[in-house]
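User: I'm putting together a small comparison set for a docking exercise, and I want a reference complex before I start. The sequence is below, and the ligand is pyridoxal-5'-phosphate. Could you produce the 3D structure with the ligand included, as structure tokens?
Assistant: Of course. I'll restate your input first, then give the structure tokens for the complex.
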Amino acid sequence: MLTYPIYLDYNATTPIDREAADAMLPYLYVHFGNPSSAHPYGRAARKAVDRAREQVAALLGATPDEIIFTSGGTEANNTVIKGVAEARGRGHIITSAVEHPAVLEPCHVLAARGFDITILPVDAQGRVSPDDVRAAIRDDTILVSVMLANNEVGTVQPIAEIASIAHEHGALMHTDAAQAVGKMPVDVRVLGVDFLSVAGHKLYAPKGIGALYVRQGIELPKFMHGASHERNRRAGTENVLEIVGLGAAAEVARRDMAANIEAMRASRDRLREALTARLDGVRCNGDPDHSLPNTLSISFQNVQANVLVERIAARVAASAGAACHADQVTVSAVLAAMDVPTDYAMGTLRLSTGKMTTLEEADEAAQVIAAAVEELRGQDPN
Ligand SMILES: Cc1ncc(COP(=O)(O)O)c(C=O)c1O
């Protein structure tokens, strides 16, 4: 019988929640209508999309008309960054060195088009300093885009503080909350942001669906042009099936938030305790005081992460934070920005737990990883 490895890569993606999948089923088989159609088939689909919009809005503390469905986090980020740039025509954008490529790449594209981009550094824990934002912000700053939580190390940024600095200077504030939503309470009013990106597949909804919060009153140029879907803010026939999945997943996430956080934290802490107790030459990356409950970025000195990931692959599914090819070590941009020493950074695993991860799985995974690290360290590199 094929046995799958223990899955510790929930920051890469999550399985679809059972309740979300069940909610989707009628939209596969029965309610196939186009939400723009006036007949009962269309009306059933429209009703489902409206309900999902309410469910997503409720999770984020927004109103339904502030939610636009997108194809995912990447599209949400592109819509904001390129949209604000298009609306303003020129100006300065501030972002951080630890953003996902779905933020950094649009910024690079805009730099090539003449926009001025400041990429702020982070401290050793991966935090952006609000003082650095204050020092970088200018009269012509049009947008500040800093992620809510980091995908590799789990560090949570001081978004409310950064947003108020942005607003004091007349800039708009965006946060990429792809990794945060479902893993911590996220309220757009508490954060004080103008835009917030959601990626469905990180919160037990399907892949290829996401949402963008746009604060009421803000006009953002369309990213997708065509017919007047999404109240003329994003063209394209609605992905009804997955929108229903995202709505249901959002409702489950809101209902089960406290229990899920507790479960993710318990298994993540168990992994950390087991690995740090058994092995020397270990460091954990990130900010212990401001962190996602599920993410453990852990570095094993003098081990090659990609070799370790391969060594454990049959029993544990995890991500490497560095790659080694022909004696060349390529450390992830996030670990590099945090100045993690190379002899540690090269041996970094990202372990991310989910709401269904058990303590038994954490124990077994820790045992497999620790044994593999000991074996690799015991080997003569020559
Ligand atoms: C922080 C962050 N932003 C954006 C994305 C992209 O989201 P999507 O895969 O839905 O396009 C990801 C996914 O890895 C992410 O971790």
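The longest strand covers residues 295-300. The domain at 6-13+257-378 is CATH 3.90.1150.10 (Aspartate Aminotransferase, domain 1).
User: Thanks, that's exactly what I needed.
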